[in-house]
Design goal:
This protein has about 625 residues and is of the alpha/beta class. The protein binds 5'-O-[(S)-ethoxy(hydroxy)phosphoryl]adenosine (WTA). 5'-O-[(S)-ethoxy(hydroxy)phosphoryl]adenosine (WTA) binds next to helix 11, strand 20, strand 24 and strand 25. Its EC number is 6.2.1.1.
C-alpha cells in the first residue's frame, strides 16, 4: 500500500517533529508535564500522574487552574483581545465575528448571571442548544465557575433530555426558542417543557436564547430570557482557580445497554491533551490558521475540538449553525472560500456524501487555503481518503485520520502531519505520550499482520474519570475484560498491517456507528418494544455506503398485527421520537421469530448476515436453525 510521504515544505514548518516521540519515550511523565505547561496554572502542579487509585487517574493533581481563563482571559491579557475567536455563520446567512475580548465579556456576563441564580461550583447545568455562539459561551461560563455542564444534542428527544437531566440532577437548562432547520424554524424550548412536564425535577431555571423568533411556552419565575439577564449582566468577573481534578463536564454516550453512560471528564489533564493534540495533529498556528471543525457541540468532538482545544490554543475558528446542503450543496465550500479556511476537520460520512454529490461542486470553489484535513468518528475507507486529499487538498495536503472516543477525551491515535507517512484508511499509530496495543481475546499482544482488540495500556491525561452515578459500570465496561493487565478496553477491533501500522476496524460490541454517531442496539430495541404492536425486537448495524452503518431492525409483532407498510413507518417515527432522528432505522423487517442461542441471547451476527445479504454463518448454536427460513421469506 502506498504511503504519502510528508511534503518537505510542510515538514519544515510543522509543529511536530520526530523528537516528540523520542522525548515521550524517554520520560513519559516529563513529556506530559511539558505539555501541561502550555496552560496557565494558578497553582503549579508538582505531581504528574497518580495511578494508585486505578482505574481512576489523577493528573497534575495538586495543580490548580481555571479552564475558561485558559481559553479566553489569558489571550486577552497577552494582547490578543482583537483577534477573532469565532467566525460564526448562521444557517440563514447571518454572521457574527466574535473577538477574544468580546468572548470574555460574554462569558463573564453569563458567569455573573449563573451566580445570581444561586449556582455554585459542583452544580450541574444542562445545555440543549443548536450551534449558536451562546452555547459555547455557556460551556465556558460553566467552566469558569466550576459548574459541570452536560450538553445534550439538540436533536435528541424530550425523553432523552429528561433522562439526562435527571441522571445529572441539573439545576439549570440553557436552551433556545428554536433552531433553524433547512430554512425553517423548529421549536426547541417547547421540547424542554415537554421534557420537564409536570413531574417535579431538579431543574430550577430554564434560560432561553432567542434565536429564531418563535413563540414559546413560558413558566414565570422558572423561565428567563438570555437577553433580559445575561445581556444586561456585568461583564466583569474574576476567574477563580479549581483543582486539576475538578469535574468539567458529563457527556452521555451510548453503551451496550439501553441506558446511556454519563462520561465524566475533569479539567487539568483534559485541557492539556486537547490543547496538545490540537496543536500537533492539526499543526495549528495561532494567529495564522483559520480552523473549522464541522462537528456539533452535542458530541465530544465539539467539546474537545471546537471549544476547549482550539480556544486554549488561541485559534480563530469557523462555527457553522446549519446543514451542508442549505441552501444548496455548495455551502461548506462557500464557507471555506469566504473565511479562507486552512484546517478542516470532518467525518467520513460527510466526505462520502460530498463524493455522491460530485466533485464539480468543490471544483467550483477556491479551496487552495486548505493545508490540513482531518477525519473522525468512524473508519475512513481508502477511496474516500484519496478523494478527500485529491479534491479538497489538491493531492498535496496531509490527512489526519484521528481515532478517539468520548471516553478518551482527546485524540489518541493519528498520523502527525509533517512527520508520518500516512496510508489511506489507516489511523497509523498512537500519538507521542500515548500507548496502545492490539491483543487477542486472552490478552496476548499481537504482531504485524494480525487483527484483534484495541486496548490502551497506559493511563492518559484526558481519560474519563468515571461514569456519573455508576462507578461499577465504569470498572465493568472498560477495565474488567483485561483486569489482570490493567488495560482499558476500547470496544474497537484493530489490525496491525505488515509494517506495524494500525487500522481501526470498528466496534466489536453492540454499539452501532451511524454517520459517526454512536447508537446502542439496545436503545433502539427498547424504543421499538415501547410500541404496543411490537413484542420483541432485534437491531443490528448493517454496512451502508454513505453512513458507514445503517440501522436494520427485525421485529416480532404482538397478536395478529399485520405487516402493513404503515406500521413500519409508524415504528420508524416512534424511534425518532423516542431517541432522535439519527436513530431512525433504515429498514424494519417484520419476522415471525428471532434467532437465539440456547441461553436466549439474540444472535446479532447472523442478523447482520441477513441484513447485508450474505450467506449465513455458523448457525449451529441456534436453538432452532429453521428460524432463518422464516426470516428470509418474511
Ligand atoms: C469510532 C468520537 C475509526 C470508534 C470521537 C470509536 C473511529 C467510536 C474513528 C467513538 C476513526 C472514532 N477511525 N473509528 N478515526 N474515530 N471512531 O465516542 O468505533 O462518538 O470507538 O467519539 O467511534 O465514538 P465517539
Amino acid at each position: 500500500m502506498t504511503s504519502y510521504l510528508p511534503a518537505p515544505e510542510f515538514a519544515a514548518q510543522a509543529n511536530a517533529d520526530a523528537s516528540l516521540s523520542e522525548r515521550a519515550r524517554a520520560d513519559r511523565d516529563g513529556f506530559w508535564a511539558e505539555q501541561a505547561n502550555r496552560l496557565h496554572w494558578h497553582t503549579p502542579f508538582t505531581e504528574v500522574l497518580d495511578w494508585t487509585d486505578a482505574p481512576v487517574a489523577r493528573w497534575f493533581g495538586d495543580g490548580e487552574l481555571n479552564v475558561a481563563y485558559n481559553c479566553v482571559d489569558r489571550h486577552v491579557i497577552d494582547g490578543h483581545g482583537d483577534q477573532v475567536a469565532i467566525h460564526w455563520e448562521g444557517e440563514p446567512g447571518d454572521s457574527r465575528a466574535i473577538t477574544y475580548a468580546q468572548l470574555l465579556d460574554e462569558v463573564c456576563r453569563a458567569a455573573n448571571t449563573f451566580t445570581a441564580l444561586g449556582l455554585v461550583a459542583g452544580d450541574r447545568v444542562a445545555i440543549y442548544m443548536p450551534m449558536v455562539p451562546e452555547a459555547i459561551v455557556t460551556m465556558l461560563a460553566c467552566a469558569r465557575l466550576g459548574l459541570t455542564h452536560s450538553v445534550v444534542f439538540a436533536g435528541f428527544s424530550p425523553t432523552a433530555l429528561r433522562q439526562r437531566v435527571d441522571d445529572a440532577e441539573a439545576r439549570l437548562i440553557v436552551t433556545t426558542d428554536g433552531q433553524w432547520r433547512r430554512g425553517k424554524p423548529a421549536a426547541l424550548k417547547y421540547a424542554v417543557d415537554e421534557a420537564l412536564g409536570s413531574d417535579p425535577s431538579s431543574v430550577e431555571h430554564v434560560l432561553v436564547v432567542r434565536r429564531v423568533g418563535l413563540d414559546v411556552p413560558w413558566t414565570e419565575v422558572r423561565d428567563l430570557w438570555w437577553d433580559e439577564t445575561v445581556s444586561v449582566a456585568s461583564p466583569s468577573h474574576e476567574a477563580q482557580a479549581f483543582p486539576a481534578e475538578h469535574p468539567l463536564f458529563i457527556l452521555y454516550t451510548s453503551g451496550t445497554t439501553g441506558k446511556p453512560k454519563g462520561i465524566l471528564h475533569t479539567t487539568g489533564g483534559y485541557l492539556t491533551q486537547t490543547a496538545y493534540t490540537h496543536h500537533n495533529v492539526f499543526d495549528h498556528k495561532a494567529g495564522h490558521d483559520i480552523y473549522w471543525c464541522t462537528a456539533d457541540i452535542g458530541w465530544v468532538t465539539g467539546h474537545s475540538y471546537i471549544v476547549y482545544g482550539p480556544l486554549a490554543n488561541r485559534a480563530t475558528q469557523v462555527v457553522y449553525e446549519g446543514t451542508p446542503n442549505f441552501p444548496d450543496e455548495h455551502r461548506h465550500f462557500e464557507i471555506i472560500e469566504k473565511y479562507g479556511v486552512t484546517i478542516y476537520y470532518t467525518a467520513p460520512t460527510l466526505i462520502r456524501t460530498f463524493m455522491k454529490w460530485g466533485r464539480e461542486i468543490p471544483d467550483a470553489h477556491d479551496l487552495s487555503t486548505l493545508r490540513v484535513l482531518g477525519s473522525v468518528g468512524e473508519p475512513i475507507n481508502p477511496e474516500a481518503w484519496r478523494w478527500y486529499r485529491d479534491v479538497f487538498g489538491a493531492d498535496n495536503t496531509p490527512i489526519v485520520d484521528t481515532w478517539w472516543q468520548t471516553e478518551t477525551g482527546a485524540i489518541m491515535i493519528a498520523p502527525l502531519p509533517g512527520v508520518t507517512a500516512a496510508k489511506p484508511g489507516a489511523a497509523m499509530g498512537p500519538l507521542p505520550g500515548i500507548s496502545a496495543r492490539v491483543v487477542d481475546d486472552n490478552g496476548t499482544t499481537l504482531g504485524h499482520g494480525e487483527s484483534g482488540l484495541l486496548v490502551l495500556d497506559q493511563p492518559w491525561p484526558s481519560m474519563l474519570r468515571g461514569i456519573w452515578n455508576d462507578m461499577d459500570r465504569y470498572r465493568e465496561t472498560y477495565w474488567q475484560r483485561f483486569a489482570s493487565d490493567g488495560w482499558y478496553f476500547a470496544g474497537d477491533g484493530a489490525k496491525l498491517d505488515d509494517d506495524g501500522d494500525l487500522w481501526i476496524l470498528g466496534r466489536v460490541d453492540d454499539v452501532m456507528n451511524v454517520s459517526g454517531h454512536r447508537i446502542s442496539t439496545a436503545e433502539v430495541e427498547s424504543a421499538l418494544v415501547g410500541h404496543p404492536a411490537v413484542a420483541e425486537a432485534a437491531v443490528v448495524g448493517a454496512s451502508d455506503e454513505t453512513t458507514g452503518q445503517g440501522i436494520v431492525a427485525f421485529v416480532i409483532l404482538t397478536g395478529s398485527a399485520t405487516t402493513a407498510d404503515a406500521l413500519v413507518s409508524e415504528l420508524k417515527a416512534a424511534v425518532s421520537l423516542e431517541i432522535s432522528p439519527i436513530a431512525r432505522p433504515r429498514e424494519i423487517h417484520i419476522v415471525p421469530e428471532l434467532p437465539k442461542t440456547r441461553s436466549g441471547k439474540i444472535m446479532r451476527r447472523l442478523l447482520r448476515d441477513v441484513a447485508e445479504g450474505r450467506e449465513l454463518g455458523d448457525t449451529s448454536t441456534l436453538v432452532d436453525p429453521t428460524v432463518f427460513e422464516a426470516i428470509a421469506t418474511a
